[in-house]
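Data deposition worksheet. Section B asks for the primary sequence of the deposited chain exactly as it was used as input, without tags or linkers unless they were present during the calculation. Section C holds the resulting structure in token form. Section D is free text for depositor observations; keep each observation to a single sentence. Incomplete worksheets are returned to the depositor.
Section A, Depositor: J.P.
Section B:
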Amino acid sequence: MKITTYIPTAQLKPFIKDYKIIESQYDTTNQVVPNASFALAFRLSGQISYINNDRSVELPNIALSGLRKSVRFIHYKKNSGTLIVSFSEQGLSAFFRQPLYDLFEQTVPLDHYIPPATLALVEERLAEMSNNQLRIACMEEFLISILINRTPDLLVTEAIHKIHSTRGNIRIKELAAALCISQDAFEKRFRKVTGASPKQFSQIIKMNAIVHQPNPASLLDLVFENGYYDQPHFNRDFKLFTGQTPTDFFKSPSFW
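Section C:
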């Protein structure tokens, strides 16, 4: 499998984290752990599916995936290719007026939000491009055409910064108080633009920090450092996030 990453141009950098083009010469399955970004996938060739409740579900040609709390296994058939747009944590809200929270744990066709005729033209243009650089340029042209809001919510930006700075170990009541806003108003405002509640978002950040920690000295230390009171609770959350027990995962971590 070949994964090539591209950086967005300056105009889109506040909203887009990166683009990836994934090309698979063989049948393969990727273990994808949750992160705090929406993802938009354009299938370029072949067949791509994911496992849901022990059954294979084929992805739409153009799929928008919300934030998740659970691992996902993506299967690429031989000679499959896809272009993935990873948004910044508030980035998707710059392109759509609809509240994003309904997309939590969901993957939907993009034609729920964009007219099918518009998407058909984008697919046609992508198919005409002779190389990946041109495909990325085509994608950026499309994204710029649907950009509607260039101003981020600065209160949510500050909240995201505080969540990251504590590795997700923060009480939402205290976070709202630090931002001088009621907890109820804060939660509504936060999930409208990030697609997750502050608690869900913090849990994703926390677990992501844990799985990216190289060679933890002690699993018990991880448990208590991250606010858990017992190992069974930690193990349950960890397996939901990665599909593996902590012991098995850290023996040979392989994910993206």
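Section D:
The chain has two domains: 2-145, 154-251.
DSSP finds nine helices and ten strands in the chain.
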